[in-house]
Design goal:
This protein is of the alpha/beta class. It has a single domain (about 5-260), classed as 3-Layer(aba) Sandwich (Rossmann fold), CATH 3.40.50. Helix content is about 30%, strand content about 25%. It has helices at about 10-15, 50-65, 85-95, 155-160, 195-205, 225-230, 240-260, and strands spanning about 5-10, 25-30, 65-75, 100-110, 120-130, 140-145, 165-170, 175, 215, 235-240. The strands form 2 sheets. Strands 1-10-9-2-3-5-4-8 form an 8-stranded mixed sheet, with helices on both faces. A two-stranded antiparallel ribbon has the order 6-7. The relative contact order is 0.17. Bound molecules: S-adenosylmethionine. S-adenosylmethionine binds near residues 13, 193 and 220.
Length: about 280
């Protein structure tokens, strides 16, 4: 089995076949969306079909390595430059994943051309392997924010309905999470498409328990790995570009170590917790 909590510098299609069946509890993949940014890695295919054939190859491996009760999240785009989320949905439906939801992350800034609406969204598809038996941690569906006036209808209120929690229930539109701040002087998040750690931590909390394993086949600057370690989960992170791997390692050292120190104790070293090198 691949060592946990290591950034693997490789093509995911070269290493995934060596992973045992059903060995990871959650998969969060943010693959190239094909043609959205100028980076070489986002423009490696001649046609959309070639891109989708490539996606099919790693999605089949993901279906195999995902635990029977596991979930998989795939990030994608919907816009003029790329409508990858639609094609990925149709592809995943055809491969035997079971569709659960399509979450829109509404960004707080935006980008886009002047002759059109400002583009402020990204999508993530949630699929499970078994539609009847999958992990869903009920507590994870509430936000940290206190409910002030109640987000349920007056008719329900009259019928005597009272909310089960004094927290807001999260919806499938996430508008409470800002973009990761870039500081190009700083090595920390030097990537053109970083995903926000709070969104990843939210997904991880909903579908895994402490000590379980999250796989990211396109780790980039390491956001999923940081979110996994901050929530006490293991990660397996694969990234083809060695410079991004170094950035991910640096983030893990800088963003995780202070947290463990602040708590006044180091995490226990077992096969299910962070490996030497990250915390020493
Ligand atoms: C959309 S970015 C991921 C960004 C990441 N979510 C983050 O927060 O930084 C996609 C990444 O996939 C990597 N990549 C492209 N092809 C790959 C492959 N065959 N195997 C592994 N990584 C690959 C790219 O180098 C790029 O960093």
């Amino acid at each position: 089995m691949t060592e946990l909590n290591q950034v693997i510098n490789a093509d995911c299609l070269d290493v995934l076949p060596s992973f045992p069946d059903g060995s990871v509890n959650l998969i969060i993949n943010d693959p190239p969306h094909y043609g959205v940014v100028k980076d070489k890695w986002d423009n490696q295919w001649k046609t959309k079909q070639a891109y989708l054939d490539w996606c099919e190859a790693w999605l089949k491996q993901c279906l195999r390595v995902l635990h029977p009760r596991g979930s998989i999240y795939i990030w994608g785009s919907i816009g003029e430059k790329s409508d990858s989320v639609i094609h990925l949905k149709l592809l995943m439906d055809s491969l035997g994943f079971h569709f659960k939801d399509w979450i829109t992350w509404k960004k707080q800034r935006g980008m886009g051309n002047r002759r059109g609406w400002l583009y402020t969204r990204e999508e993530t598809l949630w699929y499970v392997k078994d539609k009847k038996d999958f992990i869903w941690n009920t507590d994870a569906q509430y936000s940290d924010e206190d409910r002030k006036s109640g987000n349920f209808g007056f008719a329900n209120w009259k019928k005597g309905y009272r909310p089960k929690s004094d927290k807001y229930r999260l919806t499938n539109v996430w508008d409470d999470i800002p973009e990761t701040t870039w500081n190009w002087q700083d090595i920390k998040v030097k990537h053109s498409t970083p995903k926000p750690v709070p969104a990843l931590a939210r997904i991880i909390a909903a579908h895994t328990a402490t000590g379980e394993t999250v796989l990211d086949c396109f780790l980039g600057s390491g956001s999923t790995a940081v979110a996994a370690q901050l929530t006490g989960r293991n990660f397996i992170g694969i990234e083809i570009d060695s410079e991004y791997c170094e950035i991910a390692q640096t983030r893990l050292l800088e963003e995780i170590k202070p947290v463990t120190k602040k708590r006044g104790k180091k995490l226990k070293k077992t096969s299910k917790t962070p490996q030497p090198g990250l915390f020493d």
